[in-house]
Structures are given as C-alpha cells and as structure tokens.
Amino acid sequence: MRSKRSRRRSRRSGGSEIVEWIKSIVLAVVIAFLIKAFIFNTTYVLGNSMYPTLHERDRLFANKIPLYFSGPKRGEIVVLRAPDTNDKDYIKRVIGIEGDTVAIIDGRVYLNGDPLEEDYIDVESYTDIYGDNYWEVPSNHVFVLGDNRDEGASKDSRFFGPVPVDTIKGITNFRYFPFDENFGKIG
Prior knowledge:
The chain has about 190 residues and is of the alpha+beta class. It folds into 2 domains: about 1-40; about 40-185, Ribbon (Umud Fragment, subunit A), CATH 2.10.109. The protein is built from 3 helices and 12 strands; from the N terminus they run H-E-E-H-E-E-E-E-E-E-E-H-E-E-E. The longest helix has about 35 residues, at about 5-40. It is elongated, with a radius of gyration of 24 Å. The chain starts with a helix and ends with a strand.
C-alpha cells in the first residue's frame, strides 16, 4: 500500500507536469506569433496576375526582415496590402522605387527613360494602360506591376498609382508548395 505522503507527491508531480505542458504550449504560441509578426509570413497566390512567374495556389514565404533595413528593391516580388480594399493582399513586382520615373509607351515599360528588360514576362506581352502612362515615384513609395500584362489581368500601379512602402508586408523569394519544378527560389 502506498502511504499518504507518496500519494500527495504523485498528485503534485502530475499537477506540475500539466503546468509544464501549459507553459510549453504558451511559449510555442508566443514564439510563433513573434515569428509571423516580425520575421516572415506565408502567403497563398489567388488569381493569375503574376503569371508566368507565379501560378494560382502557389504557396510562398514572405520575408519581413529586409524591410526593417531598407525598402524593397527593383525586381523584387512583394506582398502588399491592397490599396483599393482593406481586406486583401496583392502580390506584385517592384518596377520603380522612390525618385524613379515609369512610363508605358506602345506596350513597353520604360524606367527612367530607358526600356526595361523584363525577362520574367511572356515575350509577346503588351503592357496596357488604364489611363495615365507616366508616373513619378514619390518618396517612400514604389511602383508595382503584375507579371501578367494581359488586359485586365493585374490590378497594380497602372490602376492605383505608386504605393506607400509601409503597405508592404514582405518580400517573397521562396515557393514552398507545390513540390514540382517551380519549387524553391523565385526569380
């Protein structure tokens, strides 16, 4: 027979084990929250505005760390809070940064007066305009375009103009799903 003392010890050790489990779970949740809030997040591609670079249902990592030290660079793919609605995000490519001029003439993008080499879009792509065809990118803003330049395929800076850098949630540079020939670093 077990003594009263050993039964009390057993109850206490069972209780302390539960407390340790609760502490571990709470710590894991806090760490996950901090990682998601300050280091990186994941995102899911809906639509074809970034085709052929990204495909619908691709899953990507969005790195937040570079945004603490500098703004996004030309050519990077970013996740940004949609300027025309508060409940969605857009995934677009940075074409121009503050101080740049962007023009679209005869279906071709010009950056600071020079034709932009865009090896990430289809060769036959024609970049339509939705009104304006010339933009000066103000301080703390970027000019973004989708890689799919078919008419109406991408809602981007041609539609809503340059976007504030503080609306950018992360820089995407890695596709982690699906596990196919596109898995890995994004160009």
